[in-house]
User: Fold this.
Amino acid sequence: MAEADPGLLRALPAVPEIAVADAADLDRTLRAAERPFVVRGLVADWPLVAAAKRSGKAARDYLLQHHKPVPFTVSVGTEGNDGRMFYDAAMGMNFQTFRGKLPEIFAHVDRAETMAEAPPIYLASINVRDFFTGLHEANHVDLGDRSALASIWIGTRTRIAAHNDFPHNLACVAAGRRRFTLFPREQFRNLYLGPIDNTPAGRAISMVDFHDPDFVAHPRFREALDHALVAELEPGDALYIPSMWWHHVEGLEQFNILLNYWWRETPRWMGQPQDALNHAIMAIRDLPDDEKQHWRELFDHYVFGNGDDVVAHIPEGGRSVLDPLTAESAGRLRAFLLRQLSR
Assistant:
């Protein structure tokens, strides 16, 4: 299948490239970074990368040596969509999801590699430690004291719509090539996001077709492109994506593998902001305007402002969740919310 010509994306400014000397240098760079950057060859010494440089089949064989005999979740799209994993005309998904053993899935990939037109096959966000033995130990980035979730993404030629993630992300290409088109977090209004509950993979996505944008339906997308960056990664290269930056991801070869690492700067016991947004839609959005305005002021007071005046009049030791949260107080608050929501 010939690659679609995304000339619009290729003309964008490139994500800056940097060099890092060692794990300590990478750690310092990540702590200081506020924008994306590329490190060429960061994981070039991985055995998985070496296998992939021989062939896609060699990379798959390497993964099969480490996989656990458990069912994997795989998404299979439809032909003729240029690998785009997206909605169908009825706002359902244009792909189906199945479960199967990895050797069986890879047998389908073997056949797809020889076909001029084949449906996209995609294994997304597979936990490396849960589904493989020894793969992480032989192929990983030293991220210091970060408690990072390592995931692997395996597939044929695919296009994943622009979305963002709450954690920071270090994405490492092990096989094939990846093109990332990135936008600062504040560009969400110009990306024309779809539903926040009915999503292909849990995050709201841009409704814009990046290979064929409709500027009549999506005129503000031109403004988004004025702020966009693009990175094309080869095997061994890595890209840092800061928290909440939007990214459109393309697997450009017949077979592609990405390993990525997600981590938060905040404790794991803190809640997910997306859950708060979902609850606010249910509880606040459709209130009368005067009531919504009052709740906006309360949110500013307790959440976004959170100044000393919020608690100054309350005796120390009696401020409950208005004090800085701990694992214990967050646990009590979560239990309270669960009781309220279950009524």
